[in-house]
Design brief:
The structure is a homodimer.
Chain A: E1 22-28, E2 38-43, E3 48-51, H1 56-65
Antiparallel strand pairs in A: 1-2, 2-3
């Protein structure tokens, strides 16, 4: 399928990646440069992989990574 | 308050930033380098700001940016 010329992900696999392997997760909202939201995951081995923003596990993983509202982080 | 030496955010303001201003949102899970999850937002003017991962608006914004499971993006 055709994606914008400046999209960073050519493929967006839905394969699950365990958050323990994450070094960083980037969300690039859709815009003029690319007509779809992109999710890039940098792994602990410094490889960057794209993830399918439609994949259900991505939402769950983000919810897991972000602390719950009631868990106060050092204040 | 004290944060790890390698944390990227010294302050994590809870101020709302409209997703229209986002160029990129980075989630850095807590780890050996920093004992709290960090959220860095790169704005369209290329400034990078930190956001409080405990702020409610952050979750809502991420949910807004990520397409809903049933909205299929170009296939």
């Amino acid at each position: 399928f055709a994606v914008g010329v400046s999209c960073r992900c050519l493929r967006t696999p839905s394969t699950f990646i365990h958050p323990r392997q994450f070094k960083r997760l980037e969300i690039i909202p859709l815009g003029a440069h690319c007509r779809q939201t992109e999710i890039l995951i940098t792994l602990k081995n410094d490889r960057t992989v794209c993830a399918n923003p439609n994949a259900k596990w991505i939402k769950n993983v983000i919810e897991r990574v972000i602390p719950k509202d009631n868990q106060k982080v050092q204040e």
